């Protein structure tokens, strides 16, 4: 939680507060008015919001890529999210995308090329086949999960 509270990058959801008592955790994050990307792509947002145009889709695709690049290359120690999927990309009121749900994230202890990823973790359908079969993390699987 301490690391998550220190991350400040515009495409990563901000954690404002954390309270842990008696085995329960209460987290306060910034509010994301437009739900998540899965809802937007499948038109499950309240008030019949307009369909995403191509400019907005490009912005939404670029945001998580910038956030992942920050976690891998600009934050020390690097953080491996391990759960990137459309329901974990939240959309602000201006549709600025933010990466959320760091529940299975790992802190890397070396450079990101060839880290043992504690074998399989993530969501079926979003895990790159190479990561699942080899139990070995490389940066390339993130391209797979954004498809």
TrEMBL record:
GO terms for molecular function: ATP binding; protein serine/threonine kinase activity; protein tyrosine kinase activity. The lineage of its organism: Eukaryota, Viridiplantae, Streptophyta, Embryophyta, Tracheophyta. InterPro entries: Kinase-like_dom_sf, LRR_Rcpt-Like_S/T_Kinase, Prot_kinase_dom, Tyr_kinase_cat_dom. Pfam families: Pkinase. Transmembrane segments: none annotated. Its EC number is 2.7.11.1. This is non-specific serine/threonine protein kinase. It comes from Protea cynaroides. Keywords: ATP-binding, Kinase, Nucleotide-binding, Serine/threonine-protein kinase, Transferase. Residues 1-147 form the Protein kinase domain. The keyword ATP-binding applies. It catalyses: L-seryl-[protein] + ATP = O-phospho-L-seryl-[protein] + ADP + H(+); L-threonyl-[protein] + ATP = O-phospho-L-threonyl-[protein] + ADP + H(+).
């Amino acid at each position: 939680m301490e690391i998550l509270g220190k991350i400040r990058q515009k495409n990563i959801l901000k954690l404002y507060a954390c309270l842990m008592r008696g085995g329960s955790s209460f987290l306060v994050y910034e509010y994301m008015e437009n739900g998540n990307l899965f809802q937007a792509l499948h038109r499950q947002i309240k008030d019949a919001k307009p369909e995403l145009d191509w400019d907005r889709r490009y912005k939404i695709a670029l945001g998580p890529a910038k956030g992942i690049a920050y976690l891998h290359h600009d934050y020390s120690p690097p953080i491996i999210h391990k759960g990137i999927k459309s329901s974990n990309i939240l959309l602000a009121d201006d549709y600025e995308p933010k990466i959320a749900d760091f529940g299975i994230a790992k802190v890397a202890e070396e450079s990101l090329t060839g880290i043992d990823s504690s074998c399989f973790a993530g969501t079926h359908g979003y895990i790159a086949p190479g990561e699942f079969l080899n139990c070995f993390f490389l940066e390339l699987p993130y391209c797979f999960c954004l498809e």
